[in-house]
Amino acid sequence: MLLVIPRGQFIMSTISGMPLFFLCCLYLIIVICEASFGPSYEYSKYCNNSNGNYTANSIYQTNLNTLLSTLTSHTEIDYGFYNFSHGQNSDKVYAIGLCRGDVKPDECRSCLNNSRVSLTRLCPKQLEAINWEEKCMLRYSNRAIFHTMDASFSYHMNNVNNATDAEEFNKVLGELLRNLSDKAASGDSRRKYAADTAVFANLQTIYGLVQCTPDLSRQDCGKCLHWSLADFGNVFKNKVGAVVLRPSCNVRYEIYPFYDEPTPSASIYYQHRSLCFPFTTTEVSPTIFLAKWHGMCKKLQLHTRLHK
Ligand SMILES: *[C@@H]1O[C@H](CO)[C@@H](O)[C@H](O)[C@H]1NC(C)=O
Ligand SMILES: *[C@@H]1O[C@H](CO)[C@@H](O)[C@H](O)[C@H]1NC(C)=O
Ligand SMILES: *[C@@H]1O[C@H](CO)[C@@H](O)[C@H](O)[C@H]1NC(C)=O
Ligand SMILES: *[C@@H]1O[C@H](CO)[C@@H](O)[C@H](O)[C@H]1NC(C)=O
Ligand SMILES: *[C@@H]1O[C@H](CO)[C@@H](O)[C@H](O)[C@H]1NC(C)=O
Ligand SMILES: *[C@@H]1O[C@H](CO)[C@@H](O)[C@H](O)[C@H]1NC(C)=O
């Protein structure tokens, strides 16, 4: 039988009478029960009150409505980034639509369409406004906003729970998000997105996602993400999940899956140290067990990955 001691150190004497497949089943049951999803966030909009207003039935309003309906009914774009403008001179409107990198074209369009409806209702006269939803962002302005980084405003949300092993958690999280930022920044003009997982010592998985509007240069994308990562360190110290939204980039991490992976998904596996507790020991042989246990956890992780 097995014993678990704090910090993920396991000790074993024998596993006789405990067929491995039983352990697997038990593990999977716990895994499924533990696959709880976190709280949902209140996504937000931003009406820029310092950039001027338009009047009802103005040319600007007509241009805006035309632009947004063109944008949300456009069916050729399949990479989730829309940069459209419409109108002339001071009545010209620029809009950017950006869907989260894993979102399919149909879902992307309907997310942007919903944003259009709520944004023009919530910011009924501002020349410039932004709406964030979980899966897309829609922005418009009278200013030329393409190829220009805007990190002037940020919106923060977080899970209230603290990581149990904060030091290790923050270290792995920081490394994961920095890696993802480098990867996203080096994306092309259609996609600057990266999402991946990292497993830390107590076998919990961290899911991270970063994205820039792909019209930014590599440097500007890197800068916008860098500032957002700094917010994580300061504002959300030790939190098990958080989101930072800026007009030009966004970052999110959780300890549960929240995005779709392009490859077979791991969305049902979620590891927790408590799942190891049913096992106790009489005789100690730490090295042998450690090797076996880690081997098994890895195998199961692979198993659930392949069978989703
Ligand atoms: C709002 O408008 C002002 C004036 O144009 C601008 O300086 C500021 O950056 C805008 N805010 C955002 C978040 O774009
Ligand atoms: C635009 O309208 C908003 C909401 O009524 C108001 O708070 C803001 O001061 C106005 N901005 C300008 C530049 O007039
Ligand atoms: C967008 O939303 C509006 C209002 O809900 C709806 O009437 C329209 O059909 C939608 N358009 C698309 C392209 O989904
Ligand atoms: C998380 O940690 C902070 C700072 O130590 C504390 O104020 C807060 O109450 C903790 N949150 C929970 C849910 O335990
Ligand atoms: C970050 O990238 C480095 C270099 O590619 C890699 O060795 C490391 O495992 C990555 N860390 C995480 C947490 O993804
Ligand atoms: C819009 O985005 C596409 C794809 O990134 C790019 O090729 C194009 O030049 C952009 N158009 C404008 C006006 O910035």
UniProtKB/TrEMBL annotation:
PROSITE patterns, per the entry: GNK2 (PS51473)
GO molecular function terms noted in the UniProt entry: kinase activity
CDD domains referenced in this protein's UniProt entry, alphabetically: Gnk2-like
Signal peptide: 1-35
Alphabetically ordered keywords of this record: Kinase, Receptor, Repeat, Signal, Transferase
Stored InterPro entries: GNK2, GNK2_sf
A Pfam family: Stress-antifung
Domain of life, source organism: Eukaryota
Keyword Nucleotidyltransferase: no
Domain Gnk2-homologous: 42-145, 151-258
Descriptive protein name: Cysteine-rich receptor-like protein kinase 14
Native species: Glycine soja (Wild soybean)
